[in-house]
From TrEMBL:
Keywords: Kinase, Transferase
Positions of the Pyrrolo-quinoline quinone repeat domain: 103-194, 256-424
GO MF entries: protein serine/threonine kinase activity
SMART domains per UniProt: PQQ
Keyword Transport: no
Enzyme Commission code: 2.7.11.1
Top-rank lineage group of the source organism: Bacteria
Gene3D superfamilies: YVTN repeat-like/Quinoprotein amine dehydrogenase (2.130.10.10)
Protein name, entry field: Serine/threonine-protein kinase AfsK
Keyword Kinase included in the entry's annotation: yes
Length: 430
């Protein structure tokens, strides 16, 4: 298999007032042999940048501890950096422990904490289950009653948790805070369009974007607006936070926009000639993401590091999957029906795993294995080292959402009519 991997030199910096004119254009075409230089935003001390067709960048005070280890699986990719790594491994053998049927299925990623799992559904419910038994603890409805021939607002976006609250946006544009213990509504905020990206809890605040073209920063306890930023295009992804910097992707404008974090005011913008559909991951000063053009990128966001571009010529399909990133590799699903494992240092392909359907599900690492779903209606477990299949479950329904893994359990949903929420764990004999 012929692949293309272009190396990028470490970035130069913009001025303290924004990006230097004529710079920061990120060429993503696989035909480009010599990549254009990428200009870092690290010179801006206090900013939020929104990347439409790219991501949101937030730089907080250096003293702020914004990147903390997740307990359980508390957001879309289990932590601020969106790395997609579980806190521990799963059993070598997995069995279905329980399942729950929901009318329209679920396309989002569950969250897990303190022995419970929370799942948003396309039929407008947030369910809370006991993780080990599947006992339904409570259900929150997006609306109390649904008019005849109408539908309730559904939850496409992944949920997020803090110690007391479940946060999530719906496809009618309402962002909701629900009590974790009781399922009672705490507060809601109306936006002007659907919310499809997850939220991140940052200290006392919660940050998310809407398709109304705004980035929102709210007080997590009260729902009061801290600020909003005009993004001039729909926000499509979950924010990514790395060393005080946040990135979130949009879907219709290849422009990187920079905002002051104190008030959300625009600072600068940079054109980028590719669109991003999924969320990015950040590690060691590099942002990792796939594009609608079928390429994967390692974009330097600090000085002194190198990036790369990866693609498989002739197989460039959209990537709706968000990457998982370790010290050594980057893994991502593609609509070419594969999961690709790429060397994080060199950008060279290590292995590809084939399925019979598109892989929009974002892979998750637990121990030395990765887990993901496919539109071919199966859930897979694959060796991280060599890409060999070690476990497979025939869900018999399409899967768009990603797994959540914590406390020895894997929870994932199917997105079909009469779809199911599935929980896997160690065989009973263990």
């Amino acid at each position: 298999m012929r692949t293309s991997s272009n190396r990028m030199s470490s970035p130069s910096f913009g001025t303290s007032h924004g990006i230097q004119n004529g710079a920061g254009i990120f060429r993503v075409s696989p035909e480009v042999k010599t990549p254009s230089p990428i200009h870092s935003l690290a010179a801006v001390l206090m900013i939020v940048a929104v990347w439409f067709g790219s991501g949101l960048f937030t730089q907080l005070n250096a003293d702020d501890e914004v990147v903390k280890a997740a307990k359980g699986w508390t957001s879309f990719r289990n932590g601020h950096q969106n790395l997609g790594i579980a806190d521990g491994p799963l059993s070598e053998e997995l069995e279905l422990k329980w399942e729950y049927t929901t009318p329209d299925g679920t396309a989002s990623t569950p969250v897990i904490a303190d022995g419970r799992t929370y799942v948003g559904t396309l039929s407008g419910d947030i369910h809370c289950f006991e993780l080990s038994s599947g006992e339904l603890v409570w259900t929150y409805r997006s609306v109390d009653e649904v008019a005849e021939n109408d539908i309730p607002p559904g939850f496409n976006a992944a949920l997020a948790l803090n110690s007391t609250t479940v946060f999530g946006g719906d496809d009618f544009g309402t962002f909701r805070a629900v009590d974790r213990k009781t399922g009672a509504r705490k507060w809601t905020l109306e936006t002007e369009a659907e919310i499809v990206g997850g939220a991140q809890v940052v200290g006392d605040n919660v940050i998310f974007g809407s398709h109304d073209g705004l980035l929102y920063c709210l007080n997590a306890e009260t729902g009061e607006k801290v600020w909003t930023a005009e993004a001039q295009g729909p926000v499509n992804a979950t924010p990514t936070i790395h060393d005080g910097e946040t990135f979130t992707t949009g879907c219709d404008q290849p422009v990187l926009r920079v905002f002051d974090i104190q008030q959300g005011k625009s600072v600068s913008e940079v054109p980028i000639d590719a669109l991003l559909i999924a969320s990015a991951a950040a590690k060691d000063g590099i942002l990792y993401f796939g594009t609608d053009g079928g390429s994967v990128h390692a974009l330097p966001i600090v000085d002194g590091v190198e990036g790369w571009t990866f693609s498989i010529p002739g197989r460039e399909q959209q990537m709706h999957s968000s990457p998982v990133v370790t010290e050594d590799v980057v893994l991502i699903g593609s609509r070419d029906k594969h999961v690709h494992c790429i060397d994080r240092k060199t950008g060279e392909l290590k292995w590809s795993f084939a399925t019979r359907g598109r892989v929009d599900s974002s892979p998750v690492i637990a121990g030395d294995k990765i887990y993901f779903g496919s539109a071919d209606r199966n859930i897979y477990g694959v060796n991280l080292s060599d890409g060999k299949e070690v476990w497979k479950f025939p869900a018999k329904q399409s899967i768009t959402g990603s797994p959540a893994i914590a406390s020895g359990y894997l929870v994932i949903g199917t997105d079909s009519s009469n779809g199911r929420i599935l929980c896997f764990g160690s065989p009973s004999s263990e």
